[in-house]
Write a structure and sequence with these properties.
The protein is an alpha/beta fold. It has helices at residues 5-21, 37-50, 61-64, 86-93, 121-126, 154-164, 168-172, 175-182, 192-213, 221-224, 254-278, 291-296, 298-315, 322-327, 349-359, 361-369, 425-430, 454-462, and strands spanning 23-31, 68-74, 108-116, 130-138, 283-288, 333-338, 373-378, 386-392, 395-403, 410-413. Helix content is 40%, strand content 15%. The relative contact order is 0.14. The chain binds guanosine-5'-triphosphate and magnesium ion (MG). Magnesium ion binds next to helix 2.
């Protein structure tokens, strides 16, 4: 049936208005390795898929007001990027016994189309429904630590690594590469036969300090997870920590060759990664696991602080920062989230959020200056415990119930108090904090995953876009 010109015009105008209402939002889920990025994305997608049905999102207005009409996973615009393994993560979480999703080894992306009824009167007049396309990127946390390298020369990075070796626990594991490097003259002809095994020993050290000391500042991140670049010469350099940096050496000598590879690494791997994936983000959530380093001790906690500072400084959301110049991000909302809050009794959640606020204050101040809306909260993407009270020596005290990750035994415990400000010597002496790793919750796949405050995170990150 042919349409009249007026009908055709109406259809075209309708499609045009629809396109005007539809929006795209690119969300950066950022965090150091094991901070909980994959768990967060999995649970976020899961909550959204259940939104409007049976999701527990009372603090997210579009869900609470019944304005969500449906959420669909749709193909990503970036055809070369693997799709985030949502199904695989859910399968692991619903296995018998349930398992946490695997650590991330490469980049992946997921796009959701969120269809909703606008609340805004003007929008409603134009169209009954609108769609928000939400793009979320997952990547290995190790790669995040490469970002600060972009602002450093090889000599500066070498000096930073030399400082790091002042920590006895880190230096204690460094003997193999320190000894191998000491045999190398900076000005002797570059020899791959020597540089490759030296870089391998250095890489082994990075793995060791991560595992043994809970170190966070493990650079360069691709050494730990090289992916397709495993044997590339670009990954065969180490920091020069054997005395003064010699000047004026070109890449035909050991020092110059390593400096050249460092620059190459920055240009091709680091800049490429941030240009292709981080540029163009609209919103950002920075996930921080404060609890694991609190449990491990002062060195690990100090290292977390250093790593966070390095990242936050280099983000420099302000107009003049190199990050701004290189990638022109347009981030207008930044959420700092302390993850795994289900390891604490509810009375400690406020303290955890305050501790995170103190930890990231430097980056905070900077971002606030440039007009970014910032918020801090404590959340659990996948809640593995329930909280209640138990009696202990005639008193009732708050307690958590869950199953231990290592042997799946059911436990009821009081993990202790989180310091509200940066932990001091007295805190470390008493070590009042005893953090037990929990297995994922027993969970029926047709139900939404249990969480803590994920709806508050959604309200902050997406709230205004679904108005
Ligand atoms: N109890 C509890 N544990 C969590 C939660 N989120 C993450 N975890 C634990 O933290 C571990 C790391 O979480 P991931 O989501 O894999 O962390 P990631 O940041 O993606 O780590 P990488 O991919 O290695 O960078 C998990 O295996 C769980 O043991 C949570 O909400 N509650
Ligand atoms: Mg991951």
């Amino acid at each position: 049936m042919s349409r009249t010109p007026l009908e055709q015009w109406r259809n075209r105008a309708g499609a045009w208005v629809q396109r005007g209402l539809d929006q795209r939002l690119r969300l950066a889920v950022t965090g150091l390795s094991r901070s909980g990025k994959t768990a967060f994305i999995t649970s976020l997608v899961n909550q959204l898929e259940h939104a409007g049905l049976d999701a527990r999102l009372p603090h997210w207005p579009p869900a609470a007001e019944g304005r969500l009409l449906g959420i669909q996973r749709v193909p990503s615009r970036h055809h070369h990027v693997p799709v985030f393994g949502y199904e695989a993560a859910l399968n692991q979480l619903s296995a018998t016994p349930p398992c946490w999703p695997e650590p991330t080894r490469g980049i992946s992306e997921i796009t959701l189309a969120i269809r909703y009824r606008p609340k805004n009167r003007l929008k409603r007049k134009l169209q009954d429904t609108a769609t928000l396309y939400l793009e979320i990127v997952d990547y290995p946390g190790e790669w995040l630590l490469d970002l600060p390298l972009l602002g450093m020369s090889y000599a500066e990075w070498s000096e930073q690594q030399r400082q790091l070796l002042q920590t006895p626990a880190l230096a204690g594991l460094a003997t193999p590469w320190l000894q191998a490097g000491a045999l190398l003259a900076a000005d002797s002809p570059a020899d791959d036969g020597k540089l490759a095994p030296l870089a391998a020993a250095y890489t082994q050290w990075l793995h060791d300090i991560k595992r043994e000391c809970g170190a966070y500042l493990v650079q360069p991140g691709r050494f730990i997870l090289p992916g397709e670049y495993r044997d590339a010469p670009m990954l065969q350099f180490v920091p020069w920590v054997w005395g003064e940096a010699p000047g004026g050496l070109n890449d035909s000598h050991h020092y110059g060759m390593m400096a050249a590879r460092f620059e190459h690494y920055k240009k091709h791997l680091v800049q490429g990664f941030y240009r292709d994936f981080f540029a163009g983000f609209d919103r950002q959530i920075v996930l921080v696991d404060c609890l694991t380093p609190l449990n491990r001790g002062p060195d690990s906690f100090a290292d977390l602080r250093r790593a966070l500072n390095a990242i936050l400084q280099s983000f420099e959301y302000g107009k003049s920062g190199w990050w701004q110049r290189l990638f022109s991000p347009r981030i207008d909302k930044l959420l700092f989230a302390a993850t795994k809050a289900d390891h604490l009794t509810p009375d400690q959640h406020g303290r955890l959020a305050t501790l995170l606020g103190t930890l990231v204050r430097g980056g905070h101040r900077h971002a606030r200056l440039s007009g970014i809306d910032i918020h801090t909260l404590a959340l659990a993407a996948i809640r593995a415990t329930s909280s209640g009270r138990v009696s202990h020596r005639g008193e009732t005290i708050p307690a958590l119930q869950g199953r231990r990750r290592d042997n799946l035994d059911a436990v009821a415990l009081y993990p202790g108090e989180v310091p509200e400000s940066l932990p001091d010597a007295a805190f470390w002496q008493q070590q009042g904090f005893d953090f037990t790793e929990f297995a994922p919750p027993e969970w029926q796949p047709e139900q939404p995953l249990p969480h803590l405050r994920l709806d508050q995170a959604l309200a902050f990150l997406l709230g205004d876009k679904l108005s």
